[in-house]
Give the backbone structure.
Amino acid sequence: MSRLVCEKCGTSDIVFQINFHYIIGLIFYSFKNERVHFRCEKHKGIQAGWFEIVICLFLGWWAPHAFLWNIEALSSNFRGGIIVDARVSSVAEIQSLIEVLGVKEMRTIEKTILAILEYRDKAIEPLIEALGTHKDSQVRLYSAYILGEFESSLAKEGLKKIGLKDKDSEVRKQVIKSLTFKKE
Ligand SMILES: [Zn+2]
């Protein structure tokens, strides 16, 4: 799946695909089409479809059935277009998986760890973030554990700079294990 980003700001956590219709109606010529926009939560809404709205307002009225299409198109455009799809970036997916590390069931935790490892290097930054900020010490502990699986200086640095300062001694113990873990 290709990476989708907001056409306005380039973020990719949640990207909505929004369709705006535009109508051209000029006596003997009427035309109905749509344009596709990809927008984040912050940049979706009417602003995404200003161009289609302008076309409808100026060109959409001047043929009998275009007139009716135009009313329909404008009403959906003024409501922010039609959201036909929403995609979540891999970072947001990893963040949701990290949340699961807080459950009690060991089997679920094991499966989740494997799922996170499948994201390879992409998982490192979300894991460091969780290690530094997550309220649940169990989530921080498993984040430290997973970071230990990476042969990466970024992961090691995160463990040292953030993990060693953890207020929970169990988390710190895991951080030390992760830092000294050697793959043969
Ligand atoms: Zn945006």
Notes: The domain at 90-180 is CATH 1.25.10.10 (Leucine-rich Repeat Variant). Helices lie at 50-59, 64-78, 90-100, 106-117, 124-133, 137-147, 153-161, 169-180. Residues 7 and 33 are 20 Å apart (CA to CA). Residues 6, 8-9, 11, 39-40, 42-43 surround zinc ion (CB under 6 Å).
